[in-house]
Amino acid sequence: MKLIELSGVSLTYPNAVEPALHDLSLDVKEGATLSILGPSGCGKTTVLRAIAGFEHPQAGEIRIAGRLVCDGKQCVPPEERGVGMVFQDYALFPHLTVTQNIAFGLRRLAPRAAADAVTHILDLVGLAGFEDRYPHELSGGQQQRVAIARALAPKPVVLLLDEPFSNLDPDMRGQMREEVQEILRRTGITAVLVTHDHDEAFAMADRIAVLNRGRLEQVDDPESIYHTPSTPFVANFVGQADFLPGRVENGKIHTEAGVFENVTGHPHGTAVEIMIRPDDVHITPASPGTAQIAGRQFRGSENLYTVLLPSGQYLHSSEASTTVYPIGTSVELTVAATHIVTFVKRR
Ligand code: ADP
């Protein structure tokens, strides 16, 4: 079942030249996590705020659990939508304890039921024993868990998370991703997570929607977004990508770095660009070779080489962390693209 559905949603802020969201259609299945991914300013937060009811699109429809909550004219207020929201800065009340922060959204319950709900949710997020602490007495990761507990306590149908890991130290992020993923799995809640970090989207989401200047570029599972991006923008945004020029001749794509299958069936003579990821390219020193090493970035788990082809085209190659060749080494290339992605050449 589709728990969240956006169809043809457009939103322009007052005095803005361009729409922040342009004819956006998306859905999220019950129990799934959708990540909204894109660069700063592309409209990610606006989508989240429109689902929550804090922004009112001028056109299109939004449905939550089958109920129309916004149709461009009328909007159901946020508190009646059954959504829980975790803000980037957590927005905890500094003068309230952990228990009081979480109980804030449970004022409609009888005191006993609210206390039981707080105990249950604190167990779920691993914060039993922290009931009487104030936010400033907690680590960043613990504050985030309180924010999630507070959002989940009223049993929303959807959890919305806006860049939830951006305020954490890099070494805490990996751990918190796993913890939040486990919380989402245990509650089975439908979630929408906004991020500009593709690794975060890959790690957390069942599906990823990539936005570019308010428009949806692609929505797909993480593997398809990485291996078979549908636009050059997506290809570039979710990882290192090179675009190697080629031409379709006799049913194959001929390029400077080899011949590839014409999997999408471009007509004979078409000028294309084939997307090459660094993990598709392997280099071995050879004398004389067909290319030359122009640069190396040591990245801990790999060495990322920049390789110069005779035409002046650059390709990148990912080699083992211990494989070190000097700059200027002449090399032979092996390009084994497991997923052949081509775009008709841009002019
Ligand atoms: P993201 O979350 O991807 O960084 P936003 O959704 O915050 O992007 O913003 C999308 C666009 O809308 C940006 O150009 C931003 O400057 C603009 N914008 C966001 N909020 C407002 C607002 N309240 N008023 C006017 N323009 C806004």
Write a structural description:
The strands form 4 sheets. The protein has a 6-stranded mixed sheet with strand order 6-7-8-3-9-10, with helices on both faces. The protein has helices at residues 44-52, 98-103, 111-124, 140-152, 170-187, 198-204, 222-227, 232-237, and strands spanning 2-11, 21-29, 33-37, 59-64, 67-70, 83-86, 158-162, 190-195, 207-212, 215-220, 242-249, 252-255, 258-261, 271-276, 281-285, 291-298, 302-308, 314-320, 330-335, 341-344. It is built from 8 helices and 20 strands. The two termini are 43 Å apart. The mean pLDDT is 94. The protein has 2 domains: 2-237, Rossmann fold, CATH 3.40.50.300; 242-344, OB fold (Dihydrolipoamide Acetyltransferase, E2P) (Beta Barrel). It has 347 residues and is of the alpha+beta class. Helix 3 (111-124) packs across helix 4. The structure holds adenosine-5'-diphosphate. Adenosine-5'-diphosphate binds next to helix 1.
Name the features.
347 residues; alpha+beta; Rossmann fold; OB fold (Dihydrolipoamide Acetyltransferase, E2P); 6-stranded mixed β-sheet; 5-stranded antiparallel β-sheet; 8 helices; 23% helix; binds adenosine-5'-diphosphate
* Head-to-tail CA distance between termini: 43 Å
According to CATH, what is the class of the largest domain? Alpha Beta
Radius of gyration: 24 Å
Total helical segments: 8
The fold-level CATH name of the largest domain is: Rossmann fold
The share of residues in extended strands comes to 25-35%
Most strands sheet: 6 strands, mixed
